[in-house]
């Protein structure tokens, strides 16, 4: 049977694979045949993800995206151990909520270090000769927050907008190398962030009811996002680059 | 940190004039104590005291004194 999203033996790095969307993406990619390199700050959490993967040939790498100066070495090590890569998913992210008066420069830097600078540096290091195979595909996990305003989300939204802007620019720059780069913009997804959200506002709160009214297909499962990422990583998406794909249960139609 | 300094920190966090609050002030009587103010308290408590406030703890705050009790 023809498999549209066939990732057999594709070597794909998933940054932020220890939890949430990154964790599910790693599992989904393994089910589609990929050899997944799990990367995140906490190796113990990565081992939990590793245990969920299907197939053989996966590996784990400690990767602290906040240490931007150290990213070159980590990427070098990964390529030395696994060979040139066919794909990368950047799912490391801080969902920090900061009211304006708490949005101090050091706080903005913390959010941008993880959500944006780590992304750019990882992409920059991967897009160098010998580190990628022809047709490499990159997907950044953005957010609908990149195009929507919300209280306390100045730093977070700006960091996601920055990612989407960068994707458009980088797509043009790396096209000659045969690399495609896109981002996926989920709305509220059933991760720890949503648990914190419910803890803060309550399931029966007007805030949550209002969210569900706008996000009318309900709260996304992490697999909903992972499926979109898998498609963008597959050869079936070869003609798609520089876009941000909303995976938002209808939110941005409201 | 003295109680006076803690109250000053709460006033600064809630963007209130100095001397607005006492330990007995009822939070429901403070117009500025809204959802963003509560979020600011969470950030301040994490930054200054290394404490992670949950929604339930925040909901339990009735007076400024209740906030002071966890500022240590």
Report on the architecture of this protein.
The complex is a heterodimer of chains A (254) and B (72). Chain A is of the alpha/beta class and 254 residues long. Chain A has a single domain (11-189, 222-246), classed as Rossmann fold, CATH 3.40.50. Chain A has 8 helices and 7 strands, in the order E-H-E-H-E-H-E-H-E-H-E-H-H-H-E. A 7-stranded parallel beta sheet of chain A has the order 3-2-1-4-5-6-7, sandwiched between helices. Chain B has 72 residues and is mostly helical. Chain B has one domain: ACP-like (Non-ribosomal Peptide Synthetase Peptidyl Carrier Protein, Chain A), CATH 1.10.1200.10. Chain B starts with a helix and ends with a helix. Chain B is globular and about 25 Å long. The longest helix of chain B is centred in the middle third of the chain and has 15 residues, at 35-49. Chain B has 4 helices and no strands. The A-B interface holds A 97-99, 101-102, 107, 151-152, 199-202 and B 13, 15, 35-37, 39-40, 43-44, 54-56, 58.
TL;DR of this structure?
The complex is a heterodimer of chains A (254) and B (72). Chain A has helices at residues 20-31, 43-50, 71-82, 105-126, 154-174, 192-201, 206-214, 222-233; strands spanning 11-15, 35-40, 59-62, 85-90, 132-141, 180-186, 244-247.
């Amino acid at each position: 049977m023809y498999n549209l999203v066939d990732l057999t033996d594709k070597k794909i790095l998933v940054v932020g694979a220890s939890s949430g969307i990154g964790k599910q993406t790693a599992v989904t990619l393994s089910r589609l045949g990929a050899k997944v390199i799990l990367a995140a700050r906490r190796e113990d959490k990565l081992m939990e993800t590793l245990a969920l993967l299907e197939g053989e040939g996966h590996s784990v790498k400690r990767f602290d995206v906040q240490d931007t100066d150290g990213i070159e070495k980590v990427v070098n090590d990964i390529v030395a151990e696994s060979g040139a890569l066919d794909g990368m998913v950047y799912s490391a992210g801080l969902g920090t909520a900061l009211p304006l008066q708490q949005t101090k420069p050091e706080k903005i830097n913390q959010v941008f270090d993880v959500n944006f600078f780590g992304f750019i540096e990882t992409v920059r290091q991967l897009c160098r000769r010998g580190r990628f195979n022809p047709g490499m595909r990159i997907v950044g996990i953005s957010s609908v927050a990149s195009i929507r305003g919300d209280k306390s989300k100045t730093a977070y939204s700006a960091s996601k907008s920055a990612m989407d802007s960068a994707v458009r620019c980088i797509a043009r720059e790396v096209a000659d190398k045969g690399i495609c780069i896109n981002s996926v913009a989920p709305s509220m997804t059933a991760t720890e962030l949503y648990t914190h959200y419910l803890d803060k506002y309550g399931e029966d709160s007007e805030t949550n009811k209002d969210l569900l009214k706008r996000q009318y297909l309900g709260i996304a499962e992490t697999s909903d996002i992972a499926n979109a990422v898998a498609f963008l990583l597959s050869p079936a998406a070869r003609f798609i680059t520089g876009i941000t794909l909303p995976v938002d249960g209808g939110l941005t139609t409201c | 940190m003295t109680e006076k300094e803690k109250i000053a920190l709460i006033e600064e966090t809630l963007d209130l004039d100095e001397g607005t609050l006492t330990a007995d002030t009822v939070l429901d009587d403070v117009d500025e104590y809204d959802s963003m103010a509560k979020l600011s308290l969470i950030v301040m408590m994490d930054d200054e005291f290394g404490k992670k406030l949950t929604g339930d703890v925040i909901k339990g705050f009735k007076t400024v004194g209740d906030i002071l009790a966890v500022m240590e």
